[in-house]
């Protein structure tokens, strides 16, 4: 604790007085950096015996597998993610709930997803890093249901337009991922690595909840905890470093190998992260991220869900294309990194009818040793 306090004091002190000295230190240390970004751990005052094993990332916290570790370097990470969705969209346009209720019996109104993500990275060698990730999630959804008979029952026009609201929730372990990251090129100015792996179906796909229709109604696809499938994962990451400025790009995909036990599989997804990070002081960096995400529709269908009833039960209303803008901050204290990122997504296009606006907050703690 004392150690951390001392480092914090040092960090603040450096932040306030030695901005220029930092630039000089960064430059002079770039010579012996390989796969990794220049970082203040190379500074004499904070040098620890195992510092060559630890790597500190400057990428936005929502970008996974952006860096490698040196041989025998470890990293534990915990991320808390809070995502909120609201509003409805059909194709490229917004649609009101009252219009949408002409077509469906039930509609999602808003959804909140909270995730606790745990990650472990290990430097197998200077060229190869292994990574394991899993998460616990909880979903809450408010839905509206069409009330067909209310006009007859009460004789008020207002009642006819007043849909019934109800809430459902689900929680538990989500899917897990195992990844291998392999260095391709690593110099002081730029580095490129590729990654491949497998997503394991540790998340449940049989979640039910009480609704006005049923005591144990099957929940729609977005409320399930996992995919039920083994997915291949792949990607490539490139990072360029110019003194305090870092530019990064990562293209990755996630594609299910075969149908799950319920005879369906989620669509493949492509994600393209682009970011710029700026080292403001030795300890503090800020990030700006732009991500393009393309998800395909599900194939097959869960026989327990009726796609005519609500759009969240429709396997052909799962695909979408979105752009996501994020602003983040990373703060380094010795081996610890604290991060936060806020982001907002807009759907360029959705298949069928889906919830539209997504807003996300991530807080994280990472420990390198
Ligand atoms: Cu790491």
Largest sheet: 11 strands, antiparallel, barrel
Count every beta strand, where a strand is a DSSP E run of 2 or more residues. 17
Can you tell me the overall shape? elongated
- Helix/strand class: mainly beta
CATH superfamily, by name, is Autotransporter beta-domain
Residue share in helix: 10-25%
Could you say how many structural domains there are in total?
A: 1
Terminal CA distance: 16 Å
Secondary-structure element string:
HHEEHEEHHEEEEEEEEEEEEE
Q: Which CATH-level-2 architecture?
A: Beta Barrel
Question: What is the rounded Rg?
Answer: 23 Å
Runs with pLDDT <50, length 5+? Answer: 12-54, 150-158
**Averaging pLDDT over every residue, what do you get?**
84
What compounds sit in this structure?
A: copper (II) ion
CATH topology, anyone?
Answer: Lipocalin
Q: Beta-strand percentage? A: over 45%
Strand order in space, largest sheet? 1-3-4-6-7-10-11-13-14-16-17
What is the count of DSSP helices, taking H or I runs of 4+ residues? 5
Q: What is the level 1 CATH name?
A: Mainly Beta
Structural features:
single chain; 369 residues; mainly beta; Lipocalin; 11-stranded antiparallel barrel; two-stranded antiparallel sheet; 5 helices; 11% helix; elongated; binds copper (II) ion; Alpha amylase; signal
How would you characterize this protein structure?
- The chain is mainly beta.
- The protein has one domain: Autotransporter beta-domain (Lipocalin).
- The protein contains five helices and 17 strands.
- The strands form three sheets. An eleven-stranded antiparallel barrel has the order 1-3-4-6-7-10-11-13-14-16-17. A two-stranded antiparallel sheet has the order 8-9.
- The structure holds copper (II) ion.
- Copper (II) ion binds at residues 55, 67, 69, 75, 121.
């Amino acid at each position: 604790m004392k150690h951390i306090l001392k480092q914090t004091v040092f960090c603040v002190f450096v932040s306030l007085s030695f901005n220029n000295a930092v630039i000089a230190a960064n430059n002079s240390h770039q010579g012996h950096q390989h796969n990794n970004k220049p970082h203040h751990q190379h500074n004499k005052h904070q040098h620890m015996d195992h510092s060559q094993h630890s790597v500190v990332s400057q990428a936005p916290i929502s970008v996974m597998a952006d860096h490698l570790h040196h041989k025998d370097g470890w990293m534990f990470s915990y991320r808390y993610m809070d995502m909120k969705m609201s509003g409805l969209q059909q194709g490229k346009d917004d649609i009101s709930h009252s219009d949408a209720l002409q077509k469906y019996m039930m509609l999602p109104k808003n959804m909140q997803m909270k995730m606790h993500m745990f990650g472990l990275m290990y430097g197998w060698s200077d060229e190869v890093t292994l990574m394991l990730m899993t998460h616990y999630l909880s979903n809450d959804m408010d839905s509206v249901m069409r009330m067909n008979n209310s006009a007859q029952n009460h004789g008020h026009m207002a009642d006819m337009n007043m849909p019934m609201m109800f809430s459902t929730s689900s929680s538990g372990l989500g899917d897990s991922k195992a990844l291998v990251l392999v260095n391709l090129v690593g110099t002081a100015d730029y580095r490129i690595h590729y990654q491949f792996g497998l997503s394991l179906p540790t998340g449940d796909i049989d979640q039910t909840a009480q609704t006005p229709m049923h005591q144990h109604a099957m929940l729609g696809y977005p409320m399930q905890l996992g995919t039920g499938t083994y997915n291949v994962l792949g990607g490539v990451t490139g990072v360029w470093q110019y003194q305090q400025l870092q530019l990064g790009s990562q293209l990755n995909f996630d594609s299910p190998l075969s149908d799950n036990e319920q005879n369906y599989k989620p669509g493949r997804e492509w994600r393209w992260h682009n970011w710029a990070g700026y080292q403001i002081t030795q300890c503090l960096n800020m990030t700006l991220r732009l991500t393009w995400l393309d998800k395909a529709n599900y194939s097959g269908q869960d026989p327990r869900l009726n796609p005519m009833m609500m759009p969240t039960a429709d396997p052909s209303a799962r695909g979408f294309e979105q752009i996501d803008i994020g602003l983040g901050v990373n703060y380094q204290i010795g081996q610890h990194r604290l991060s936060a990122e806020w982001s907002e997504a807009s759907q360029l296009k959705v298949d069928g009818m889906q919830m539209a606006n997504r807003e996300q907050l991530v807080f994280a703690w990472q420990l390198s040793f």
